[in-house]
Specification:
Elements lengths: L1 E4 L1 H14 L4 H18 L6 E6 L3 H15 L3 E6 L7 H9 L3 E3 L12 E5 L11 H12 L3 E5 L21 E5 L2 E2 L7 H5 L1 E5 L10 E3 L2 H7 L14 E5 L7 H12 L4 E5 L3 H7 L4 E3 L11 E4 L7 H11 L5 E3 L2 H8 L2 H4 L5 E3 L3 H5 L9 H12 L2 E4 L5 E3 L5 E3 L12 H14 L4 H20 L6 H17 L11
Parallel strand pairs: 1-8, 2-3, 2-5, 3-4, 5-6, 6-7, 7-9, 10-19, 11-12, 11-14, 12-13, 14-15, 15-16, 16-17
Antiparallel strand pairs: 1-10, 17-18, 18-19
Bound molecules: ligand NAX and potassium ion.
The site of ligand NAX has 27 residues, from helix 1, helix 2 and helix 3.
Length: about 475
């Protein structure tokens, strides 16, 4: 698992190391790592043009020292000081000694001809949207030809939440120091960070409160059957979804559950005939969930409607002592009767998107991890908050940010697939928060695989699930989550 950290956690770890190392050591480590990444990105250094945007804090210091490294290797480096009076003195001296030029935001910045732009305006010390002079220079950098590289955090992105309250540096690469900051992989910040490179500066970090799963983490949780398994020991999923008029959600949800490899899928609801026709492997009933036979976890909600029948079916499922995944129409109903969820003792997983989340009484806001944690704690349930980077939170505060996926997943029916897939993982006995995080990861990877063939529809995801799971098991152990378009 990859640990994700807040600025405060990084600062606390830095304090200890700063006290134990000679002055300037950490910044030198950061700047050397940054320059090394830049050298790799540039390929050829001699004669290339680099513009360093330097704010008044240590983030500017990192950028100036890295600029000095590049200048010593023959790059033509211009430092643009956003606040010349307060620029990092040692970094500035190093850059000048290495032959770099220095100017202000209104001087000859070189942005219109730069090969590379280093954003050292603000790092983890940034607060609120970028101030006007910084915002203006970022806008000019973004319209120029240079490769956009952010130092530690793209300036204007909140390192903790990924919130982008105003202008921000749209990085193609972010070189971050000591630890991955949560804001680089969640919320709007994810779109500004580009590819994230982690430079080790020797920080000893405590266990993280937020994680991202890797392919290997997920492969370890989605186990293949053992020789002694039978259909019951591999997990039996019950699906309540769809209707006789709209069987689509039921077919997708059931198909995803089947393709995620449980031992058996049972279906209960008025789309039984449609489900039986699409998936003859399923045991169906057009009666109540209690008529479906024994299951180990339920998925309830997609396309089931919100009428009185649907309400009583939801109440029946939530009254069981089994893990239940609540999605779509069932979320709408659960938001009106949250005590049905609160009084459960068995695990519940809720899978809202932002509008469904708001039905529980508060908007998601800019802190998506915080929002998922709040609802999880309030309801005593795992909350899987869907989005570009889906967040999963447990009532005890444990949280995950998903790293897989593709914008192509924003299409009808993909949520039904996520529900069926995650319900199947719940039925295998995984802890609910891990089933949800693993489900989101696999769903994203299936989307990436399906999108390799062009625009995807939800049933492509179902078809791709077995190959997706097979690929996960072959993946190297430390691969960072990434998303392909
Ligand atoms: N503490 C350390 O030993 C290390 C710190 N490092 C670097 O230091 C950074 C943190 O440095 P600082 O604490 O000095 O803070 P920053 O350099 O991140 O930011 C502080 C500066 O930004 C300005 N600022 C804040 N919000 C702004 C906004 N919205 N618009 C424009 N300007 C704004 C402040 O006025 C201040 O001048 C890290 O991100 C990292 O890059 C690294 O060198 C590694 C070692
Ligand atoms: K920065």
């Amino acid at each position: 698992m990859i640990g994700l950290y807040t600025a405060a956690e990084v600062r606390a770890a830095e304090e200890l190391l700063l006290a134990a190392t000679p002055e300037g050591t950490l910044m030198q480590r950061a700047a050397t790592g940054l320059a090394t990444v830049c050298l790799g990105l540039l390929g050829r250094v001699h004669g290339t043009r680099v513009t360093v945007l330097a704010g008044a804090g240590n983030n500017g210091g990192d950028a100036l020292f890295a600029g000095a490294h590049l200048a010593r290797r023959g790059a033509r480096v211009t430092a643009v000081l956003l606040d010349p009076e307060r620029a990092h003195a040692a970094g500035l001296a190093a850059l000048r000694t290495a032959g770099g030029w220095v100017t202000g935001p209104d001087g000859p910045t070189g942005l219109e001809r730069a090969d590379l732009v280093l954003d050292g305006i603000v790092g983890i010390g940034g607060r609120g949207g970028l101030r006007p002079p910084a915002a203006a220079v970022v806008e000019r950098a973004a319209t120029g030809p240079g490769l956009m590289v952010a130092v530690d955090v793209p300036s204007g992105v909140d390192a903790d939440t990924g919130a982008v309250p105003g202008a921000a540096f749209p990085a193609q690469h972010t070189v971050t120091f000591g630890a991955l900051k949560t804001g680089l992989v969640v919320g709007e910040g994810r779109g500004y960070a580009g590819r994230v490179h982690l430079v080790d500066i020797g920080l000893a970090l405590p266990p993280a409160g937020v994680h991202q799963l890797t392919d290997a983490d997920v492969a370890a949780r989605v186990r293949p059957p053992h020789p002694g398994d039978d259909k019951y020991t591999q997990g039996v999923v019950g699906v309540v979804a769809g209707s006789s008029t709209y069987p689509g959600a039921a077919v997708l949800c059931t198909g995803a559950a089947l393709r995620a490899r449980p031992g058996l899928v049972r279906y209960a609801g008025t789309a039984a005939a449609g489900v039986r026709a699409a998936w003859p492997e399923t045991i169906v009933t057009d009666g109540r969930p209690s008529d479906a036979g024994r299951v180990q976890a339920w998925v309830v909600g997609p396309g089931m409607g919100t009428d009185d029948d649907a309400r009583s079916v939801l109440a029946e499922v939530l009254a069981t002592d089994l893990p239940v995944l609540v999605d779509a129409d069932a979320l709408t109903m659960a938001a009106q009767q949250p005590d049905l969820v609160r009084r459960r003792e068995a695990p519940t997983v809720l899978t809202p998107h932002d509008r469904e989340y708001a039905r529980f009484g508060a908007e998601v806001g800019e802190d998506r991890v915080g929002a998922a944690r709040r609802l999880a704690a309030d309801l005593g349930a795992v909350v899987l908050l869907k989005g570009d980077a889906t967040v999963v939170a447990a009532p005890d505060g444990a949280a995950y940010v998903n790293g897989t996926g593709t914008p192509w997943l924003a299409t009808a029916g993909t949520g039904d697939v996520l529900s069926g897939l995650t319900g199947a993982l719940l039925a295998t006995g995984l802890p609910a928060v891990e089933a949800a995080a693993a489900g989101a990861h696999v769903h994203g990877r299936a989307g990436q695989l399906a999108a390799e063939e062009g625009p995807l529809i939800a049933s492509d995801l179902v078809r791709c699930l077995p190959a997706t799971l097979a690929r996960l098991r072959r993946a190297p152990a430390d691969r960072l989550g990434d998303s392909g378009v």
